[in-house]
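Data deposition worksheet. Section B asks for the primary sequence of the deposited chain exactly as it was used as input, without tags or linkers unless they were present during the calculation. Section C holds the resulting structure in token form. Section D is free text for depositor observations; keep each observation to a single sentence. Incomplete worksheets are returned to the depositor.
Section A, Depositor: J.P.
Section B:
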Amino acid sequence: MYLHLGKGTVVPKKDVVGIFDLDVTSQSHLTRKYLNLAEKAGEVVNAAEDIPKSFVVCFDGKKRSVILSQMASATLLKRSESDLI
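Section C:
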């Protein structure tokens, strides 16, 4: 099954490591540092047409990616738990 993150970006559910609320997690200096390092490494994908609300960390066994999404983390979590998507 797949998880739609917005702006035509779809990832296999099995590759999702975590779904994070950007407003809550970005208050931590560690999260900001992680996101900065991921951006410098070219691992950040922007799937948000507007201001991102969440980010999803994915790992396919070879490559890590951090995908910014304008969808709320609660919405993405519900989608990830559903077998319909």
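Section D:
Residues 29-40 form the longest helix (12 residues).
The beta strands are 2-6, 9-12, 16-21, 44-46, 54-59, 64-69.
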